[in-house]
């Protein structure tokens, strides 16, 4: 059984839609390749940034705990 022929929406070339093809079903394999420039690498945090993030997370957790488990009196 032949594979269905599709037209790429980006480059408008025809390609065979094969099973387990990575990417989008309406793009050819060349246009489906992820661009490396889109991903921004996350920078490493120093000790002060880690501490501030941890404190913010703890404040969020305590606020949620107070909202969920406070007694209505």
Strand content: 5-15%
The helix/strand class is mainly alpha
State the separation between the terminal residues, measured CA to CA: 71 Å
Approximate helicity band: 25-40%
* Rg from alpha-carbon coordinates: 25 Å
Order of helices and strands: EEHH
Query: What's the number of extended β-strand segments?
Result: 2
What is the number of helical segments per DSSP (H or I, 4+ residues)?
A: 2
Q: Give the low-confidence spans.
A: none
Could you describe the 3D structure shown?
This protein has 73 residues and is mainly alpha-helical. The protein has two helices and two strands, in the order ββαα. It has a two-stranded antiparallel ribbon. β1 (5-7) and β2 (14-16) form a beta hairpin. The radius of gyration is 25 Å and the shape is elongated. The protein starts with a strand and ends with a helix.
Compose a concise summary of this entry.
The protein has 73 residues and is mainly alpha-helical. It has two helices and two strands; from the N terminus they run E-E-H-H.
Topology:
Elements: E1 5-7, E2 14-16, H1 29-32, H2 47-69
Antiparallel strand pairs: 1-2
Give me some keywords for this one.
mainly alpha, 2 helices, 73 residues, single chain
């Amino acid at each position: 059984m032949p594979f269905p022929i599709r037209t790429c929406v980006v480059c408008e070339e025809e390609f065979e839609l094969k099973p387990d093809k990575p990417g989008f079903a309406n793009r050819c394999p060349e246009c489906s390749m992820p661009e490396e420039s889109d991903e921004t690498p996350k920078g490493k945090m120093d000790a002060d940034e880690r501490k501030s993030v941890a404190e913010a997370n703890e404040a969020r957790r305590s606020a949620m705990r107070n909202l969920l488990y406070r007694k209505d009196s």
